[in-house]
Amino acid sequence: MRYVVGLTKDSRGRDAISLATTLAQSLDDPGAVEIDLVHVISGARPDDAATPQEREYQRLKADEAEEWMAKSLFLIPKTLRARATIHFADSMAEGILEVAAAGRTDLIIVGAASHGPFRRFTVGSVANALLHTATAPVALAPAGYLPPSDLTRITCALGTRTGAEAVLQVAVDSAVLHRVPLRIISLVSLDARAAVPAANAPDKHAERVLEEASASVDGAVDVSVDIARGRSTEAAIESLDWSEGEIVLIGSSRLAQRHTIFLGTTANKMLRSLPVPMVVIPRYHPLDGADSPSQPI
Prior knowledge:
By secondary structure, this protein is of the alpha/beta class. The protein folds into 2 domains: 2-141, HUPs (Rossmann fold), CATH 3.40.50; 153-291, HUPs (Rossmann fold, 3-Layer(aba) Sandwich). It is 33% helix and 20% strand. It contains 8 helices and 10 strands. The protein has a 10-stranded mixed β-sheet. Helix 8 links the parallel strand 9 and strand 10 (278-281). Helix 5 (164-178) packs across helix 6 (201-217). The radius of gyration is 20 Å and the shape is elongated. The chain starts with a strand and ends in a 16-residue tail after the last strand. Mean pLDDT is 85; it is low at 192-196 and 285-292.
């Protein structure tokens, strides 16, 4: 497995590293994960610079980045495999996507914007671009994220839109891989397609997905289900209990192209209230057959 971590010389970078190490250390074989810390420098590579002055400036920025990135590697336990990569591109998001596309990438991890509230999300320009174009799952670490001793639970927020089955499968496989309980949150009562959903629709949906997930894990991990209820998405999310050691998986909007991410309205609203990391899974079409995902994160 490979985690590509977007690294900046501020708290966002530390939050992203914390999430990457938490996920990697919860695996049976943490050494099977390669953590690639990626810092993107805006502009051309020094050798491709247009003028001697620009060439020297880009080299200075690269030398400075190498120095502080070497220190960042010390934040990762020695039991994990990690490396630092400096990449030149027009933007941070573009550079992260280019590095991710250069090899198999199971997860892209970035921190929330540094000016956001503590342990909450403010989606900055980098995260926003990734959440609308990435072809790999994208994980967002909330501001001030502190690595728990263990990953304690994976939560899958699920509605009934196309692609929900694929997201559930990723959640099931991830829970089994990390050996943690799986919780499913039914979002049916928050579905914007119907002003007044049928009274028993959320309960029926919760019962069905619980049955499907339980059959898939085959007793390997505990599975539970909750129903998000509230006058708003934010209120519904705040009414649920959250563990410091859990992460939330959610699918992309129906507006996303195949194999890409597009952050939907519900996920965007959830971000305002979530105190734990969120992972957005790319949209996979049910007709993709063998190309449909089941890769855990």
